[in-house]
Design a protein that fits this description.
575 residues
Length: 575
């Protein structure tokens, strides 16, 4: 764990100090009990003193009850504060994930992200809630017991503690090996999670391809790798915890023999020997517990390292401290010599320049991979250009507040996201306070209102996980309704009718033309009808703008635009 991890503790330091104080009092009460056994043997039993017997037994009972009560109080208080600390950590990670760009998600498996956000944070929380307080209590009790042993008889203490350095050396030998085994186990677990997410989302493809046996074999192989990693970790854990404890047990046997000889010789009282043995046995338990807890702390360190990899992922798009607000927006969009590269290729966009004026519908057309969807991410500032400027109403997007950009510029992606909620809740997601009438208006504008009315529960009908209870076209139109409800100054549509038939496509065209009248629409499309319905067309090829103009003009002359739609126009089919 590093300084960043401890920063999460700072807001809770007062509550943590209170827990520590309670633990100290509880430890002191527990440490006093073995010493009472010395008086019990020497004074009450050997001295045949009934009053001393009653007094000591009463003290035993009081200290036992007090120790139990204090342990319960400190344990419950620490469990709550540790849960709140770990929630802060999980929230910090979640917020960081929300700031990361599409580049990060393109190169990182979803299962690996979920594993770190859920499993690794949960493991840290488990160790913090269970092991950390036990570690503190055991350290306090171990230190107090050792001090009492030395105070009772320092020579006997030296004999009893002689094997301790050997135990510590044995523990250190296995430290690095244990952390490596735990890291391997966490990765194998992450691999299984990624496999399950990927294949369960593609169940239809797996079944239709008769690939069930192959995927079961992959699952079996991943599980076998997980079991192998688990067994390797367990073997190291047993040696890391058991070997030092065994060495301490041998030291205890030697101390029993040496102390017994001194009692026989009369150089040590029976009560002192009894009290020493009580402390010796109580030293053995926390020492062994501390060594066993080492595996838990090693697991937490590995989990924290995995969490830190996410927290250290660079944020490509950051809001400047002096970012300006944009309360009103006309909707003028301009790209000025915008260049952007990705991990996949050197330049997705190369010196792209174009503008869209308020009230204008501009279609972006071109072959696959020419950077059209990247333009959508740049307009909404999910990405920043490597060079050049993207402007909104004349302002560089990097000078504006992110919240204002995303308020005025709304993107409808080719594969829209729906939540496992009702149709109405999915439409209302951008404006939770929207009225039923406003939601109905948005549904009508997107051409989905009649379909919703025919559903068993209307707008209250659940759409299923990722909206899979609906068709692709229905999901697209619900996403359009959601965008219309947001009332944006700039609407960015990425293949908005890819899953629609000709009639539904015409409804969508009519809908966005009515809703966005006087405002700006950027439309990425491969559909000829959508491109021809635009006021102006930008043609991209080879990461550059190669042509632009009114669609009728582009269609009338040879060029990329004409070739593109001739390719997409099979005989007798209007694309």
């Amino acid at each position: 764990m590093d300084r960043r991890a401890f920063a999460y503790l700072v807001p809770y330091w007062r509550r943590l100090v209170l827990v520590l104080v309670i633990s100290l009092i509880s430890t002191a009460a527990t440490l006093a009990m073995p010493y009472l056994s010395k008086d019990l043997i020497d004074h009450a039993l050997i001295g045949r003193d009934g009053n001393a017997l009653r007094r000591i037994v009463f003290m035993f009972a009081v200290l036992g009850v007090a120790g139990f009560a204090l342990n319960v109080v400190s344990g419950l208080r620490y469990t709550r504060v540790s849960a709140e600390i770990l929630f802060d950590m999980r929230l910090s990670m979640y917020e960081h994930l929300q700031r990361l760009s599409p580049r990060f998600y393109a190169r990182t498996r979803l299962g690996d992200i979920v594993s770190r956000l859920n499993n690794d944070i949960s493991e840290i929380q488990r160790v913090a809630a269970e092991a950390a307080l036990a570690w503190v209590g055991n350290v306090l009790f171990l230190a107090g017991s050792l001090a009492m042993m030395v105070w009772l008889d320092w020579r006997l203490s030296l004999v009893a503690l002689a094997p301790l350095p050997i135990s510590l050396i044995a523990l250190g030998v296995y430290r690095r090996r244990l952390e490596g085994r735990i890291a391997d186990l966490r990765q194998r677990s992450s691999d299984i999670g990624s496999f399950l997410i990927e294949t369960l989302q593609a169940t239809s493809l797996v079944v239709a391809s008769n690939a069930q046996p192959r995927e079961r074999a992959r699952f079996r192989g991943l599980n076998g790798a997980f079991i192998d990693a688990l067994m390797r970790m367990q073997r190291v854990t047993y040696f890391a915890g058991g070997l030092p404890g065994t060495v301490l047990s041998i030291g205890s046997a030697v101390a029993f023999f040496y102390g017994g000889l001194r009692v026989i010789d009369g150089t040590l009282t029976l009560g002192t020997m009894g009290a020493f043995l009580a402390y010796q046995m109580r030293v053995f338990a926390p020492a062994q517990a501390l060594m066993g807890l080492y595996a838990s702390l090693a697991t937490a360190r590995v989990s924290w390292a995995r969490v830190r990899e996410i927290l250290d992922a660079p944020v490509d798009v950051q809001e400047r401290p002096d970012a300006r607000g944009l309360p009103e927006c006309r909707g003028e969009v301009a790209f000025e010599s915008v260049t952007l590269g990705t991990d996949r290729q050197s330049a997705v966009l190369d010196a792209v320049t174009f503008a869209a004026r308020p009230g204008e519908c501009v279609a972006l057309v071109g072959g696959s991979g020419v950077g059209k969807s990247t333009i959508a991410y740049l307009v909404t500032r999910l990405l920043d250009p490597d060079r050049g400027v993207v402007r909104l109403d004349g302002h560089d997007l990097r000078d504006l507040r992110l919240a204002d950009i995303r308020k005025h510029v709304v993107l409808v992606e080719q594969e829209p996201t729906l939540f496992h909620a009702s149709v109405g809740d999915n439409i209302r997601y951008v404006r939770p306070g929207a009225t039923d009438a406003e939601v109905m208006w948005a549904a009508e504008a997107s051409g989905i209102a009649r379909f919703i009315a025919a559903l068993p529960n209307g707008f209250a009908t659940l759409v299923g996980e990722r909206g899979l209870a609906l068709s692709a076209g229905e999901r697209q139109r619900i996403a359009l309704a959601r965008a219309f409800l947001a009332d944006p100054a700039v609407l960015v549509l990425d293949e908005p009718t890819a899953a629609l038939d000709a009639i539904a496509q015409r409804q969508v065209i009519d809908g966005y033309q009515a809703v966005m009248r006087g405002r700006t629409t950027l439309m990425i499309t491969h559909r000829r009808e959508l491109a021809m319905a635009a006021d102006r067309v930008i043609v991209l090829d080879g990461a550059r703008v190669v042509d632009e103009g009114r669609p009728q003009e582009l269609a009338a002359r040879p060029g990329v635009f004409a070739r593109l739609f001739e390719i997409d126009r099979p005989a007798g089919v209007d694309v």
